[in-house]
Amino acid sequence: MSPAARDQALEADASKIVGVEVRRESDGDLRRVVLLLRDAFEDSSAKLSATGVKLVGELAAISTRYPTYPVQLVGHADGQPPSSRETVSLARANAIYWALVQRGVDSRRMSVEGALPQPADLGAHGAVSDPASVQANLTLLYYVTQNSPVTV
Fold first, then answer.
1. Does the predicted model carry a pTM greater than 0.70?
2. How far apart are CA 93 and CA 137, in angstroms?
3. In the chain, where does DSSP find H-type helix?
4. pLDDT per residue over 117-146, tens digit each?
5. How far is CA 144 from the centre of its chain?
6. Which of 14, 100, 122, 138 would staple 105 via disulfide (CB 3.0–4.6 Å)?
7. pLDDT, tens digit, for every residue of 60-116?
């Protein structure tokens, strides 16, 4: 399968997951498939909700099906008080990370980040580039550059 066909297949498979918004972003040679997860966590916490547990299972299946893509997990906690946003957003990304590792996704493929929204430009944190996406609990990015496949 060609890299372009593989990228399209990843996007199509991710689009089938209920509760996940999928879009493609480009920045020069960097291309990525972005998955925005909503309702993955219980209110104001990093504890996975019932929906989140189901989403993790589906994300693990996709990550296993496409093992050469690097994955970046970016947690969000935009509804939190400013003093706890960084802690909760990073904890949310780590919760998904460890849940994926427990389901067999290679940890060396993944990176974790907690996003802090900037009032003027949420796009400064990479994945969340429009205000409508701010309510996502977590953004998962599959990098699909020409040279992106990783070997582990």
1. yes
2. 9
3. 3-15, 50-65, 85-102
4. 644 334 444 444 454 444 566 677 776 544
5. 14
6. 100
7. 999 999 998 899 898 888 766 777 788 888 999 999 999 999 999 999 999 998 877
Residues 6+ positions from 113 with CB-CB distance below 8 Å? 72, 73, 74, 75, 90, 93, 125
Q: What is the DSSP string of 130-152?
A: SGGGTT-SEEEEEE--TT-----
| CB 51, CB 89: distance < 8 Å | no
Q: What pairs with residue 37 in β-bridges?
A: 20, 138
12 within 8 A of 22, measured Cβ to Cβ: no
For residues 51 and 138, the answer to whether their CB atoms sit within 8 Å is: no
Single-letter code of the amino acid located at 59: L
Query: If you search the block for the tokens 């990783």, which residue do you land on?
Result: 150
Q: Is the dihedral of CA 27, 10, 16, 99 positive or negative?
A: negative
Of 83, 70, 79, 93, give the one whose Cα is nearest residue 141. 70
Q: How far apart (Å, rounded) are the C-alpha atoms in residues 71 and 152?
A: 13
Tell me the two tokens of residue 71: 């994955």
